[in-house]
Amino acid sequence: MAQYKAPLRDMQFVLHDMLNIENHYASIPAFADTNRELVDSVLEAGAQFCENELSPINRSGDEEGCQFDDGVVTTPKGFKEAYKKYVELGFGSLSAPVEHGGQGLPPSLGTVMSEMMGTANWSWGMYPGLSHGAINTVEAHGDAQQKEVYLTKLISGEWTGTMCLTESHAGSDLGLIRTKAEPNADGSYKISGTKIFISAGEHDMADNIVHIVLARLPDAPKGTKGISLFIVPKFMPTGERNGVKCGSIEHKMGIKASATCVINFDEATGFLIGAPNKGLNCMFTFMNVARIGTAVQGVAAAEGSFQGALEYARDRTAMRSLTGPKNPDKEADVIIVHPAVRQLLLTQKAFAEGGRALVYLLSTYTDIVATTQDAEAKKAADDMMSFLTPIAKAFLTEVGYEAANHGVQVFGGHGFIREWGMEQIVRDTRIALLYEGTTQIQALDLLGRKVLQTQGGMLRNFTKVVHKFCQTHEGNADMAQFVAPLAALNKEWGDVTMRIGMKAMGNADEAGAAAVDYMMYSGYVTLAYLWAWMAQVAQAKLAVGEGDAEFYKAKIQTAQFYFKKILPRTKGHIEMIDGGAETLMQMTADAFAF
Amino acid sequence: MAQYKAPLRDMQFVLHDMLNIENHYASIPAFADTNRELVDSVLEAGAQFCENELSPINRSGDEEGCQFDDGVVTTPKGFKEAYKKYVELGFGSLSAPVEHGGQGLPPSLGTVMSEMMGTANWSWGMYPGLSHGAINTVEAHGDAQQKEVYLTKLISGEWTGTMCLTESHAGSDLGLIRTKAEPNADGSYKISGTKIFISAGEHDMADNIVHIVLARLPDAPKGTKGISLFIVPKFMPTGERNGVKCGSIEHKMGIKASATCVINFDEATGFLIGAPNKGLNCMFTFMNVARIGTAVQGVAAAEGSFQGALEYARDRTAMRSLTGPKNPDKEADVIIVHPAVRQLLLTQKAFAEGGRALVYLLSTYTDIVATTQDAEAKKAADDMMSFLTPIAKAFLTEVGYEAANHGVQVFGGHGFIREWGMEQIVRDTRIALLYEGTTQIQALDLLGRKVLQTQGGMLRNFTKVVHKFCQTHEGNADMAQFVAPLAALNKEWGDVTMRIGMKAMGNADEAGAAAVDYMMYSGYVTLAYLWAWMAQVAQAKLAVGEGDAEFYKAKIQTAQFYFKKILPRTKGHIEMIDGGAETLMQMTADAFAF
Does residue B561 sit at the A interface (CB-CB below 8 Å)? Predict the structure, then answer.
């Protein structure tokens, strides 16, 4: 199987050449010290750790899986040791607040780190990933004592965290959850109920596990407005065992080394975080972070499968190029000469690099939202993040999954064999389209909540930026190939939104019927903007003769590929959006099958 | 996990209402006795066998997999017993020639049967499927004695067969194979070499295994023109063991209950079939059959995942319909009320039923090719089959895989859990895009060999049929919604082919660069024709008040869905085809990654 190699050159292109990350950090007082050298040294240390510690236990972890025995979960060989190293090297506390033992680096650097960890070994990355979610939640909503007791241990990595939301009958619809929280005399609560799909819910990597649990108080209103949030540790800070037990682990398609647990709470002691009945509001912070984290899985899938497929395509020989032998001394040409193989590889590359740009851009907004005191700047960043997050989550996981499948395809029949590792990426990635809100839920969030409910306001925030980019570069002859189609799409985006909005006023199902195609359309246009931007940066670098010309040329060529061979997919989505709801809704549930 | 239920009503719709299969059989002397009653009784017996014997061991077979121990392969629990029953019930000999013990029924009935077996348990179906390939090959190219010795035993099911083509360095490019055949004094050959990816290469279901092996004679020319075909039995007809041994079995993403073997031939005794160095020509018969058989896997994936997802969507509750509660007495609505869920389900349904129509139509050509003495009729059917086969193989497996993924998606996070069986369909189906020629190879076969090399002749054969359909029904007001877009696409199909042909004359890579999008485009248009045809049949039935009106209404509604919400994908493919080869070919192999 291909060994992961962190694409440092490309990461640096996005961070430095494109996003000018040093300036971005300099503009935020809390991160003013994060200069280019520091960024690069974190990248390099992260790359070493991921390449040397995580990548080698990725396939063995998949084969071995997690073992369950009477409430105890054993992670695959090497997982515990890698976690210990991760903690020792300080990666867990990278972007955590200094006042609780963190290093206070920007969240965006944590995102870059999570891409490397995730590409090297997604299952392993789930454990610290969930801790990260718990850290954010306690930091944002916990009181001083909760922070003192739990946050410091989570940040130090001595303890890990989970997010306990889902119940067997309540996934997308959290308003249905039934887990109960009954007040104790001492101000704590007795938590009872069963949660499912709890990643990192039980394992052998740390001394204690801090569960963040959604539950209902006795007098809670029905639905989403009656949900409260609790801290429920596996072991009480005093050391005794709490009434929390892992009932079983799931047998899954992929991420087999990540323990997905049924967690039973049997009058477990819990502590309310935030206000009663406001639990779901408290979760929104976490959910945005988790969605960006899942968007990273799409990038990881594209990058990892691209690396494997590229190596194979440069080495495997089959048939001759249609334009005549390219390796006449061999009995056949390497398969990278074939246009259809290149189409697969370039699609992977365009999604990996384009997705990376989107996720990193998005993470710069999280830097601002997390730290700024300026309400206007915060709202601007938050709006942009709110708009781009469902696109990044749904679109990047859909195309990341596509890219992972292309990786298998480049290998031919060998791609189906576990040994090569390509099919594992497909299996591991499939969950990304489901958890943290399915593609369909994200699409409704984008079109319904973010676009239509703001009367298009959040969309215009973004299309204005795109419009400005097009205006700035429309006079550049080399950029016309990108600017002209991008400007047209940017306008069409607004137009189609209007059309959906009009129809949805008469029939709400018109929004639901358009949502997924609208989300995919939005994703392709967003990536078109980023590819145009990257091409412009590369052209500027070439013009002044800075850096590696071959790298920048390839960047422009990939942008050209994206515009010619990917972006036309928007044509189909527009027509399907305009196809409306009728053909979806007219069939009775009984008539679907006879 | 959802129990498979054969969609007999829909199968009968395609066979009787649409294809008028009784008339088709009546027109072929060999099949004149195959009337509607016989067809229906075979369908019902097949459905019973598949539902009661194969479906129940589908998931257990996946969990258990095949076991390998020193050359011996053990299939999962129940596989052997099901095979015994299959043989006893006569399903193995259904469409085999009467003179060697078969029942002489039409090949198209065998295709229908293979759809049911494959949907119920694809892994299991691989064993008789490979026998079927061996039967066809020996029947077409074996001499009288070979037929006497091997064919009768293969048809009776006492022995099974394999097709040994692939070697580790030679998959798509069979011209590279190295397995040797050295003549013995008695007219037999010593076969030496190693074959990989041999399905049913070793197992415990039958007494003997007849390998059909591609190998090179000592004086053979290089490449594809130096390949000969041999029968190499595991046990000689006299009973002694031949020099054939299974070296290992592959660990795969899916179809885990199908033994995928490395087969070592160590001076094994083999018998030449057909003329020396004409082995690949002899294989073409088999390959067409195998490709249609793989197209069936796409239909099976769509049908099986649709059945599972539909059951779940009618039962699982989450959130309220956007247009207000539909099940006010429950705490949430069943998810089939949501447009985005319906979009997934209807996509599965449109591909399952449309794919079924394509495969059954295709199989009527195989009936003719297999039996007719009329050279002109044979050529016409053969040409149609040659044109539609790569479309059916590549397009139906691509969209079948998409549909299988939609099945997972409808289940949300539960879709990722093995217990539900949805993810197994994804894993089992992934191979269909790879074996028997990848999607990319099929696309080149379609555009290069079938379309451009015939100067568009094979395409015109088909577009003429579509054109005639459009002309016949253009006056029908109810059909305008289908006929108008279909006629436009049918014309565009010819136009885009011309454009590709012109460009490819200057640069062969232009064909390679267009091939996959062209194949997908062709698939969508072909299915549009079939959906229009099915809608027309349903409208005619409704007009005369025959049969179940609800069934025919749903058929028309599905056609409407297909035209509005699937067919627009052609728009993207056209533009990507016209996007040309340049952006695929300009990047140097070195510049793909830095």
Answer: yes
Q: Give residue B28's pLDDT.
A: 94
- Record the tokens describing residue A594, joined without a space: 């006879």
B436 part of the active site: yes
Q: Are strands A159-164 and A208-215 parallel, antiparallel or unpaired?
A: parallel
Q: What is the pLDDT of residues B79-135, one digit of tens each?
A: 999 999 999 999 999 999 999 999 999 999 999 999 999 999 999 999 999 999 999
Which residues are within 8 A (CB) of B82 and not within 5 positions of it... i.e. 6 or more apart?
B53, B54, B57, B124
pLDDT value for B1: 55
> Do the beta carbons of residue B576 and residue B569 sit within 8 Å?
no
Q: What is the pLDDT of residues B390-445, one digit of tens each?
A: 999 999 999 999 999 999 999 999 999 999 999 999 999 999 999 999 999 999 99
The residues near B68 (Cβ < 8 Å, ≥ 6 apart) are B74, B246, B248, B249, B259
Q: Which two tokens stand for residue A404?
A: 């992972």
CB B358 within 8 A of CB B396: yes
Inform me whether the pLDDT recorded for B348 exceeds 90: yes
Q: Which residues contact A257 (CB under 8 A, 6 or more apart)?
A: A61, A62, A64, A65, A66, A75, A76, A79, A121, A123, A124
Interface of A with B in 437-456 (CB under 8 A): 438-440, 443-444
Query: What average pLDDT score do residues A179-185 get?
Result: 98
For A29-50, what is the mean pLDDT? 97
Give buried/exposed letters for A508-531 (b at 16+ CB in 10 A, else e). Answer: bbbbbbbbbbbbbbbbbbbbbbbb
**Nearest-CA residue of chain A relative to B431?**
A416
B408-to-A260, A538, B252, B302 alpha-carbon distances in Å:
17, 40, 20, 12
- Rounded distance between C-alpha atoms, residue A40 and residue A158, angstroms: 27
pLDDT at A547 over 70: yes
Beta strands B159-164; A208-215: pairing state: unpaired
- Has residue A352 got a pLDDT over 60? yes
Q: Is B586 on the interface with A (CB under 8 A)?
A: yes
Residue A280 touches partner B, C-beta closer than 8 Å: no
Closest chain A residue to B422, measured at CA? A253
Give the list of residues 6+ apart from residue B278 with CB closer than 8 angstroms, or none. Answer: B228, B229
Single-letter residue type at B535: A
What pLDDT does B477 receive?
A: 95
pLDDT at A244: 98
A251 touches chain B (CB under 8 A): yes
Helices (runs of H) and strands (runs of E) counted in chain B: 21, 9
Closest CA to A75 of A197, A263, A206, A195: A206
Strand partners, A589: none
Strands (E), A103-255: 159-164, 180-183, 189-199, 208-215, 228-233, 244-249
- How confident is the model over B497-504, as a mean pLDDT? 98
* Helix pair angle (A422-430, A279-315), 10° resolution: 160
ipTM computed for the complex: 0.97
State the sign of the Cα–Cα–Cα–Cα dihedral A288, A289, A292, A293.
negative
Confidence category of residue A283, pLDDT binned at 50, 70, 90: confident
As to burial, measured by CB atoms within 10 angstroms (0-12 exposed, 13-18 middle, 19+ buried), residue A377 is: middle
The single residue of B353, B398, B436, B510 carrying the catalytic annotation is B436
The answer to pTM > 0.95 is: yes
Candidates B121, B276, B94, B81; CA nearest to B183 is B276
Is the separation of the CB atoms in B474 and B482 below 8 Å?
no
User: Nearest residue on chain A to B12, judged by CA atoms?
Assistant: A594
Q: What is the sign of the dihedral through the CA atoms of B409, B410, B412 and B414?
A: negative
- Which residue is it, tokens 């709801």? A581
Residue-wise pLDDT tens digits, B173-209 = 999 999 999 999 999 999 999 999 999 999 999 999 9
